[in-house]
Amino acid sequence: MKYNARAALPAAEAILLASLVIILLISVSASPAGLDTSITPSTVLHCITSHLPVISSHSTTVTATQDAIVWGIRMPRAITGAAVGMLLAMAGVAFQSFLMNPMADPYMVGVSAGSALGSAAVILAGGSAWLAGMAQPLAAFAAGMGSMALVTALARINGRLSAQTFLLAGFVFGTFVYSVTRLAISIANRQSDTSKTGQILSQLLGSLQGVSWQSLWLLMPMGIAAAWMLFMARKELNLMALGEESAAHLGVDTERFKNRIILAGSLATAATVAVAGIIGFVGMVVPHIARRLVGPDHTRLLPCSMLLGGIVLSASDLIGRVWFNGLEVGVITAMLGAPAFCYLLRRKLVSAW
């Protein structure tokens, strides 16, 4: 399929940004079916401004209960969900471009499986409360980055990193580590500890339940660093789309570039798994939809994918929380993502990569 630059939406990013803000406002305002908390979009706005020192309104129309629900529970969940979606989509763009494989996904390279295992190990050891509750996400992040370092070392041959070998090594390693995580679930079951089993399963399914401002402070530094690294590499990503040899002739240090992309993608993926568990299909499907909107130029593709990823995950969390009794967001993204990807295959968008 030939891409026509004139067909791209000239204001796609603005439209997506406005859509994301609206969905976040609805997400914070909406209550589960049958639960009336009398929280309206106006109440949400008053609550938000009351916590901003520059434009603080200290509205008397917001009760303490409403403030606790909006600011203490729903706001960190909504913002974390949007940030996770953004990072997964950006990592998906980077891995698909770097590996030149439209089926590539941030979770296919072993990072998510390693992070899930690190989280499960802390849960199984009863350390969820260690380090003021930060032991589990920190272990997940460290294990994810360690996994990527191991996969990269396995895939490097004679000092060069092969994209195909890297993808294969990540898939095999991830499958093995995922099996070990299932062993951790079996051990928790044998201990008759349903709480540990539930926590580990929540990590594997992908969930935003229980996220807090503390979780967001862990996610943001790593997420900002990863996003900055990917945006700085947008020109090289365009050149790599021409092929590794062509990019090298055009002045790209391909081996150094690969290391940068792997590091950035791993930072983004490990950070998201650390706070929300494994959430699939966002990093695989969203980049293809974004390419359909704005084309293959990473100068627009990266921000468009970022905003679209935030919209998809925020909307999925809204659906699961309000209409499906708090169903894990990873289940919703899989239910929506799998048919969407099948549709893309039927439209031959993947074959036109």
Please give the share of residues in helix.
over 70%
Overall CATH class: Mainly Alpha
Provide the β-strand percentage band. Answer: under 5%
Structural domain tally: 1
Give the count of helical stretches. 15
Report the span from N to C terminus: 8 Å
The radius of gyration computed from the alpha-carbon positions, rounded to a whole number of angstroms, is 21 Å
> What structural class do helix, strand and pairing data support?
mainly alpha
CATH architecture designation: Orthogonal Bundle
User: Strands of the largest sheet, in order across it?
Assistant: 1-2
List the uncertain runs: 1-8
Task: Write a structural description.
The chain is globular and about 65 Å long. With 353 residues, it is mainly alpha-helical. A hairpin with a 2-residue loop joins β1 and β2. The chain has helices spanning 12-29, 41-50, 64-99, 111-124, 130-133, 135-155, 163-190, 194-205, 213-232, 234-240, 244-249, 254-276, 282-294, 298-323, 329-346; strands at residues 156-157, 160-161. The N and C termini lie close together (8 Å). It has a two-stranded antiparallel ribbon. Helix content is 73%, strand content 1%. The longest helix has 36 residues, at 64-99. The chain has a single domain (8-50, 61-346), classed as ABC transporter involved in vitamin B12 uptake, BtuC (Orthogonal Bundle). α4 runs antiparallel to α6 and α4 packs antiparallel against α8.
